[in-house]
Amino acid sequence: xxxxxxxxxxxxxxxxxxxxxxxxxxxxxxxxxxxxxxxxxxxxxxxxxxxxxxxxxxxxxxxxxxxxxxxxxxxxxxxxxxxxxxxxxxxxxxxxxxxxxxxxxxxxxxxxxxxxxxxxxxxxxxxxxxxxxxxxxxxxxxxxxxxxxxxxxxxxxxxxxxxxxxxxxxxxxxxxxxxxxxxxxxxxx
Length: 189
Prior knowledge:
Elements (H helix, E strand, L loop, with lengths): L4 E6 L5 H17 L5 E7 L11 E9 L2 E10 L2 H23 L9 E10 L4 E5 L5 E5 L16 E9 L3 E9 L13
Helix pairs in contact: 1-2
Protein backbone atom coordinates (compact mmCIF):
# COMPACT_ATOMS: atom_id res chain seq x y z
CA UNK A 1 0.00 0.00 0.00
CA UNK A 2 1.39 3.37 -1.02
CA UNK A 3 -0.82 5.25 1.41
CA UNK A 4 0.37 5.67 4.99
CA UNK A 5 -1.84 3.44 7.12
CA UNK A 6 -2.30 3.85 10.86
CA UNK A 7 -4.12 1.09 12.77
CA UNK A 8 -5.20 1.61 16.38
CA UNK A 9 -6.67 -1.01 18.69
CA UNK A 10 -8.59 0.27 21.72
CA UNK A 11 -9.58 -2.07 24.54
CA UNK A 12 -8.85 -5.02 22.26
CA UNK A 13 -5.75 -7.18 22.04
CA UNK A 14 -3.91 -6.44 18.77
CA UNK A 15 -3.41 -9.42 16.49
CA UNK A 16 -1.43 -9.97 13.31
CA UNK A 17 -4.47 -11.59 11.68
CA UNK A 18 -6.68 -8.55 12.31
CA UNK A 19 -3.95 -6.15 11.27
CA UNK A 20 -3.37 -8.10 8.05
CA UNK A 21 -7.09 -8.13 7.32
CA UNK A 22 -7.31 -4.36 7.83
CA UNK A 23 -4.27 -3.82 5.55
CA UNK A 24 -5.88 -5.90 2.79
CA UNK A 25 -9.13 -3.93 3.05
CA UNK A 26 -7.26 -0.60 3.02
CA UNK A 27 -5.25 -1.63 -0.05
CA UNK A 28 -8.46 -2.41 -1.93
CA UNK A 29 -9.68 1.15 -1.26
CA UNK A 30 -6.83 2.44 -3.43
CA UNK A 31 -8.32 0.61 -6.40
CA UNK A 32 -11.53 2.65 -6.01
CA UNK A 33 -9.96 6.06 -5.59
CA UNK A 34 -6.56 7.59 -6.32
CA UNK A 35 -4.87 9.34 -4.58
CA UNK A 36 -5.65 8.46 -0.98
CA UNK A 37 -3.29 10.58 1.10
CA UNK A 38 -3.79 8.89 4.48
CA UNK A 39 -5.85 6.20 6.15
CA UNK A 40 -6.47 5.76 9.87
CA UNK A 41 -8.43 2.80 11.20
CA UNK A 42 -9.55 2.56 14.82
CA UNK A 43 -10.95 -0.76 16.04
CA UNK A 44 -12.37 -0.68 19.53
CA UNK A 45 -14.56 -2.51 21.99
CA UNK A 46 -16.63 0.13 23.79
CA UNK A 47 -17.23 -0.48 27.47
CA UNK A 48 -20.43 -2.44 27.94
CA UNK A 49 -22.45 -3.70 30.84
CA UNK A 50 -21.27 -7.09 32.03
CA UNK A 51 -24.41 -8.88 30.84
CA UNK A 52 -23.91 -7.79 27.22
CA UNK A 53 -21.55 -9.52 24.81
CA UNK A 54 -18.50 -8.02 23.17
CA UNK A 55 -19.21 -5.64 20.29
CA UNK A 56 -16.71 -4.06 17.91
CA UNK A 57 -16.80 -0.52 16.61
CA UNK A 58 -14.81 0.68 13.57
CA UNK A 59 -13.84 4.22 12.59
CA UNK A 60 -12.03 4.95 9.34
CA UNK A 61 -10.60 8.38 8.47
CA UNK A 62 -9.39 8.67 4.87
CA UNK A 63 -7.50 11.75 3.75
CA UNK A 64 -8.26 12.69 0.14
CA UNK A 65 -7.27 15.85 -1.76
CA UNK A 66 -9.27 18.74 -0.34
CA UNK A 67 -11.35 16.68 2.05
CA UNK A 68 -11.60 13.76 4.44
CA UNK A 69 -13.90 10.76 4.24
CA UNK A 70 -15.02 9.55 7.66
CA UNK A 71 -16.78 6.28 8.38
CA UNK A 72 -17.99 5.65 11.92
CA UNK A 73 -19.81 2.32 11.98
CA UNK A 74 -22.00 1.19 14.82
CA UNK A 75 -20.92 -1.84 16.73
CA UNK A 76 -21.23 -5.45 15.60
CA UNK A 77 -20.58 -8.66 17.52
CA UNK A 78 -18.30 -10.12 14.81
CA UNK A 79 -15.10 -8.13 14.29
CA UNK A 80 -14.78 -9.21 10.65
CA UNK A 81 -18.39 -8.22 9.87
CA UNK A 82 -17.79 -4.84 11.54
CA UNK A 83 -14.67 -4.32 9.40
CA UNK A 84 -16.42 -5.45 6.21
CA UNK A 85 -19.35 -3.08 6.77
CA UNK A 86 -17.06 -0.16 7.58
CA UNK A 87 -14.83 -0.67 4.54
CA UNK A 88 -17.88 -1.16 2.28
CA UNK A 89 -19.23 2.17 3.54
CA UNK A 90 -15.82 3.78 2.95
CA UNK A 91 -15.76 2.47 -0.63
CA UNK A 92 -19.25 3.89 -1.30
CA UNK A 93 -18.24 7.27 0.14
CA UNK A 94 -15.06 7.30 -1.98
CA UNK A 95 -17.15 6.49 -5.07
CA UNK A 96 -19.51 9.37 -4.25
CA UNK A 97 -16.60 11.73 -3.61
CA UNK A 98 -14.96 10.72 -6.90
CA UNK A 99 -18.25 11.33 -8.74
CA UNK A 100 -18.57 14.77 -7.17
CA UNK A 101 -15.02 15.63 -8.26
CA UNK A 102 -15.90 14.66 -11.83
CA UNK A 103 -19.16 16.62 -11.48
CA UNK A 104 -21.14 13.50 -12.26
CA UNK A 105 -24.44 12.66 -10.68
CA UNK A 106 -25.77 9.25 -9.84
CA UNK A 107 -27.96 7.80 -12.54
CA UNK A 108 -31.29 6.92 -11.04
CA UNK A 109 -33.34 4.07 -12.38
CA UNK A 110 -36.01 5.14 -14.83
CA UNK A 111 -39.49 4.85 -13.37
CA UNK A 112 -42.40 3.61 -15.42
CA UNK A 113 -46.13 3.87 -14.84
CA UNK A 114 -47.96 0.83 -16.09
CA UNK A 115 -50.84 -1.36 -15.17
CA UNK A 116 -51.31 -4.75 -13.61
CA UNK A 117 -52.53 -7.07 -16.39
CA UNK A 118 -52.47 -10.48 -14.71
CA UNK A 119 -52.15 -11.43 -11.07
CA UNK A 120 -51.79 -14.80 -9.39
CA UNK A 121 -52.04 -14.14 -5.63
CA UNK A 122 -51.98 -17.83 -4.66
CA UNK A 123 -48.69 -18.31 -6.54
CA UNK A 124 -47.26 -14.96 -5.36
CA UNK A 125 -46.64 -13.20 -8.69
CA UNK A 126 -48.16 -11.15 -11.47
CA UNK A 127 -47.42 -9.16 -14.61
CA UNK A 128 -47.45 -5.45 -15.41
CA UNK A 129 -47.57 -3.79 -18.82
CA UNK A 130 -45.11 -0.99 -19.56
CA UNK A 131 -46.34 2.02 -21.58
CA UNK A 132 -44.71 0.52 -24.71
CA UNK A 133 -46.75 -2.67 -24.28
CA UNK A 134 -43.99 -4.94 -22.96
CA UNK A 135 -45.08 -7.22 -20.14
CA UNK A 136 -42.87 -7.64 -17.08
CA UNK A 137 -43.00 -10.24 -14.33
CA UNK A 138 -43.05 -9.22 -10.65
CA UNK A 139 -43.41 -11.15 -7.42
CA UNK A 140 -44.58 -10.30 -3.91
CA UNK A 141 -41.02 -9.37 -2.86
CA UNK A 142 -41.02 -6.57 -5.45
CA UNK A 143 -44.00 -4.75 -3.89
CA UNK A 144 -43.36 -1.58 -1.89
CA UNK A 145 -46.50 -0.23 -0.24
CA UNK A 146 -49.06 -2.90 -1.02
CA UNK A 147 -49.59 -6.62 -0.57
CA UNK A 148 -50.19 -8.89 -3.53
CA UNK A 149 -53.73 -9.70 -2.40
CA UNK A 150 -54.54 -5.94 -2.45
CA UNK A 151 -53.67 -5.56 -6.15
CA UNK A 152 -56.19 -6.01 -8.92
CA UNK A 153 -55.99 -6.26 -12.69
CA UNK A 154 -56.10 -2.79 -14.22
CA UNK A 155 -54.48 -1.07 -11.21
CA UNK A 156 -52.00 1.63 -12.19
CA UNK A 157 -48.58 1.05 -10.64
CA UNK A 158 -45.20 2.75 -10.64
CA UNK A 159 -42.11 0.55 -11.02
CA UNK A 160 -38.54 0.35 -12.24
CA UNK A 161 -37.22 -2.32 -14.55
CA UNK A 162 -34.49 -4.60 -13.30
CA UNK A 163 -32.74 -7.69 -14.62
CA UNK A 164 -32.51 -11.02 -12.88
CA UNK A 165 -30.27 -13.88 -13.94
CA UNK A 166 -33.08 -16.44 -13.86
CA UNK A 167 -36.13 -14.56 -15.16
CA UNK A 168 -34.64 -11.73 -17.26
CA UNK A 169 -36.43 -8.32 -17.21
CA UNK A 170 -38.57 -7.85 -14.14
CA UNK A 171 -40.64 -5.05 -12.56
CA UNK A 172 -39.10 -4.01 -9.24
CA UNK A 173 -40.16 -1.57 -6.49
CA UNK A 174 -43.76 -1.84 -7.65
CA UNK A 175 -45.95 0.69 -5.83
CA UNK A 176 -49.52 1.86 -6.02
CA UNK A 177 -50.79 5.36 -5.55
CA UNK A 178 -52.41 8.03 -7.62
CA UNK A 179 -50.63 7.09 -10.83
CA UNK A 180 -52.28 7.84 -14.14
CA UNK A 181 -51.56 5.72 -17.16
CA UNK A 182 -49.82 7.61 -19.96
CA UNK A 183 -51.95 8.55 -22.99
CA UNK A 184 -52.26 5.77 -25.53
CA UNK A 185 -52.02 2.92 -23.01
CA UNK A 186 -55.23 0.91 -23.23
CA UNK A 187 -57.05 0.18 -19.96
CA UNK A 188 -57.67 -3.48 -19.18
CA UNK A 189 -61.32 -4.41 -19.41
